[in-house]
Design a protein that fits this description.
The chain has a 5-stranded mixed beta sheet with strand order 1-2-3-4-5. By secondary structure, it is an alpha/beta fold. The protein is built from 4 helices and 5 strands, in the order E-E-H-E-H-E-H-E-H. Helices cover about 40% and strands about 30% of the residues. Helix 1 packs parallel to helix 2.
Length: about 110
């Protein structure tokens, strides 16, 4: 999995390419934690090139959302495929994390 980050004025954009599974989720978790620990609690996660997310990956998203909310921020998922949205819905994640269709709108929501 490849991860890139872009810092904007009010949030950070994190993009990932590949699978988020038990092997790669810790790398994504470290990336999110570094952002939150730096005091930036607005994160947009671009999932346009994520083709799989495991339960460990879902746990990372939920823990990141909790950490962001503690700092009065939030995690927003963007460009989530329909199949991935169904998985997030089945896992109950959609009730806790906002999902948007457009990066510009997601970044602008902060």
């Amino acid at each position: 999995m490849e991860i890139s980050t872009t810092a904007y004025k009010r949030c950070d954009l994190v993009s990932a390419i590949g699978r988020v599974d038990s092997n790669t989720a810790p790398t994504l978790e470290r990336t999110f934690n570094e952002i939150v620990e730096s005091g930036r609690t607005g994160i947009v996660f671009d999932m346009s090139q994520v083709d799989f997310i495991s339960s460990r990956g879902l746990w990372v998203l939920l823990e990141t959302q909790k950490a962001c909310k503690r700092g009065n921020g939030k995690l927003v998922l963007v460009n989530v495929s329909e199949d991935m949205q169904q998985s997030l819905d089945l896992a109950g994640v959609k009730h806790f994390i906002d999902i948007m269709d457009d990066i510009t709108a997601a970044v602008g929501s902060f």
